[in-house]
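Final report, Chapter 2: Outcomes

The project's central promise was a pipeline that accepts a single protein chain and returns its three-dimensional structure in a standardized token representation, suitable for archiving and comparison. That pipeline is now operational. To close this chapter, we reproduce one record exactly as it appears in the project archive, with the input sequence first and the structure output second.
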Amino acid sequence: MYAVKVLHGYIGKDGQRTRDKNRVRLFPTKNYAEKFADKIGGRVKMIG
């Protein structure tokens, strides 16, 4: 699973930045996460 990282946190399920890794919006493939990260200016990080 992949998450989008921005500044000092991640993009949460509600679309806001969060530091809580339990509320992170997860993407099943790196390709989907990279497309989203490109739109918002974040980067992709593999989670567990």
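Archive annotation: The two ends are 7 Å apart (CA to CA).
This record, like all others produced under the grant, will remain available to the consortium after the project formally closes.
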